[in-house]
Amino acid sequence: MHKDNLSPEELSRLQRLFRAHKPEGEVNSWLTYLWKSAEQLKSNQPAARGRIVRFVRPLMRYAAVFLIAVAITWVWQGSKKLPEIQDIVAIASSGINEISVTYGSKTRIVLPDSSVVYLNSGSRLSYSSVFDSERHVTLIGEGYFIVRSDASRPFWVHTSEVSIKALGTEFNVKAYPEEGSVETFLVSGVVEILKKGQTKPIIELKPGEKAAYVMAAENEPTMADNSSNTPYEPKDTPQMIVNTIPKPDVSTGWVSNQLVFDAEPFEQIAVRLERWFNVEIEILNENLRNVRLSGRYDTENIEQVMNSLRMAATFSYRIDKNKVIIR
User: Fold this and answer.
1) Which pick of 50, 55, 71, 196 has the fewest CB atoms within 10 Å?
2) DSSP string for 199-250
């Protein structure tokens, strides 16, 4: 690359890369900002033209460097991608079925009533091989439920703290024990949330709403997601927090193999990355833990994701086999 511009050969190569790989999301927004900044500067008064040229030229030079770096990232597809969703069809028999999903995997299950459940990494689902008057499943971890409509047989999802009652609907439940909360996001239909062992619902959700049942904590804050970007404070008693979610794919993107987070603390993102890529992440940079970041990934491997996050937050890292050490 020359000092202030691209050679014809370099420009041709860059154009070929961009024709094959379309920029999306925040990268596209950043590129738009660069062009608008340059155009705005060009339209200023002639008296300042010398200063404008001096500013625009390095701006576009840096933009070109950035474009090539991003283009190379799009072309380079890592080998450690999330495996395709495994299909499991329930076979009618006596007893209880239990499906476990390891870190780095996802599973799609067809239940005895033809309802469908997607299980996220590190999750476990237990259910009866035959559904009778009611349909009951028990979830540890995260599941996306597409419930077959049957008004005569309610569908129950039981977690450690609450139960979710549905008839025919779609919803996501996240109930990892270590996170200190149970989150239910309703996509369509209606669900009721009940405290375990009680018969009166705590709340009835509407589509687009997410309820987080936050367990009592003495010292440790919960990891429950909050669309208002305000951390939940530890409480002496459990509480139910309900929000309307403007970006549903933050809760449901994983079903279509997209890892999405929106202004989440880095410490929480690290936990999600551990499950997603089946790695261990050690954060030695304490100042980084509460830094909030946003991102969207689908085909990237762990190294690509870390390089992307490093552009938004100041840290270094190294990967030692299955462990990521962040400083």
Assistant:
1) 50
2) SS-SEEE-TTEEEEEEPP-SSSPP----TT--PPPP-SS-EEEEEE-S-THH
Q: CA–CA separation, 257 vs 282, rounded Å?
A: 25
Cβ-defined contacts of 22-31 (< 8 Å, 24+): 23/70, 23/74, 25/296, 26/294, 26/295, 26/296, 27/70, 30/66, 31/63, 31/67
Q: What's the CATH number for 86-250?
A: 2.60.120.1440
Give which of 145, 139, 174, 322 is closest to 261, Cα–Cα. Answer: 174
Residue ranges of the chain whose pLDDT lies below 50: 1-4, 8, 11-12, 15-83, 90-92, 218-223, 225-232, 234
Can you give the pTM of this predicted structure? 0.69
Residues pairing with 153 in the sheet: none
Tens of pLDDT, residues 51-96: 333 333 444 444 443 343 333 333 333 334 444 566 555 444 558 8
116 by DSSP, 3-state: which? strand
> CATH says 258-326 is which class?
alpha beta
Give residue 170's Cα distance to chain centre. Answer: 18
Spans of all domains in the chain: 8-75, 86-250, 258-326
First and final C-alpha spacing in the chain: 32
**Computed over its alpha carbons, how large is the radius of gyration of the chain?**
24
Q: Is 299 helix (H, G, I), strand (E, B) or coil?
A: coil
Render pLDDT for 267-278 as a digit per residue (tens, 0 to 9).
Answer: 999 999 999 999
| CA–CA gap between residue 62 and residue 64 (Å, rounded) | 5
Rounded to 10 degrees, the C-alpha dihedral 279/218/123/172 comes to -120
CA–CA separation, 319 and 80 (whole Å):
13
